[in-house]
Amino acid sequence: MKRILVIEDDEKVQESIVDLLEIRGYEILRASNGKDGLDLAVDKRPDLILCDVMMANLNGFSVLSALRAMSQFEKTPFIFLSALSEQKFIDQGLSKGANRYIVKPFKAEDLFSAIDELTK
Question: Could you give the CA distance from residue 67 to residue 1 in angstroms, rounded to a whole number?
Answer without folding.
Answer: 22
